[in-house]
Amino acid sequence: MLAPMDSPVMADFVNNLNQINDLAESSEGFIWRLKDDANNATSIKIYNDDFLIVNMSVWKDIDRLFRFTYQTQHLEIFKRRNEWFEKMKEMHMALWYVEENHKPTTIEAEERLDYLRANGDTPFAFTFKKRFSVEEALSFQK
Q1: How many angstroms separate the CA atoms of 133 and 136, rounded?
Q2: Is the same domain home to 119 and 78?
Q3: What residues have CB less than 8 Å from 84, skipping those under 6 apart?
Q4: In DSSP terms, which residues pair with 109 in a beta bridge?
Q5: Stated pTM of the model
Q6: Do 62 and 96 reside in the same domain of the chain?
Q7: DSSP SS3 for 61
Q8: Distance of CA 22 to CAs 12, 25, 37, 39, 83, Å?
Q9: Rg (CA), the chain
Q10: Which of 68, 92, 113, 139 has the most other CB atoms within 10 Å of its CB?
Q11: Per-residue exposure over 17-48, b if at least 16 CB sit within 10 Å of its own CB, e if not
């Protein structure tokens, strides 16, 4: 983040959180998202860094997540990310498969993201640009 969550710099981001989270939860394929007592995840730490926020969700498949991310109102907010966030030099997003009913943790997210940063796209952690199948993920050996 460019500033603390309660700063004027972040106000418009914060003002759009509930709307975008509601959109995600009502989107086809949505299963679960990480959230705190305020119904978002802005207070949940990742990498023990006060200026990183985590956005973690589970979807039925990658295509439905992609549609939500790039073909809904979410895209308009996503396009404005430079107003609120510094450009990260390292990869900051990772996809991976989870078993049914599993709710991933921030520890799992850090592990997958670290692996992606070190090894590039693999069936263990990947991006929208290079996708892998569930079968490839199940047979992958780290």
Answers
A1: 5
A2: no
A3: 1, 2, 9, 10, 12, 13
A4: none
A5: 0.92
A6: no
A7: coil
A8: 16, 5, 15, 10, 22
A9: 15
A10: 68
A11: beebbebbeebebbeebbbeeeebbbebebee
What is the mean predicted confidence (pLDDT) over 40-50? 93
Token pair of 32, please?
């679960």
Q: What percent of the chain has pLDDT over 70?
A: 100
Same domain, 79 and 94: no
Q: 21-36, pLDDT tens digit by residue?
A: 999 999 999 999 999 9
Residues of the domain holding 44: 1-86
The two tokens of residue 130 are 């290079």
Asked whether the predicted pLDDT for residue 93 surpasses 90, the reply is yes
CA distance 72 to 17: 14
> Tokens standing for 33?
């998202």
Range 79-109 burial, b when 16+ CB lie within 10 A, else e: eeeeebbeeeeeeeebbbbeeeeeebeeeeb
Number of domains within the chain: 2
At residue 142 the predicted structure's pLDDT band, cuts being 50, 70 and 90, is confident
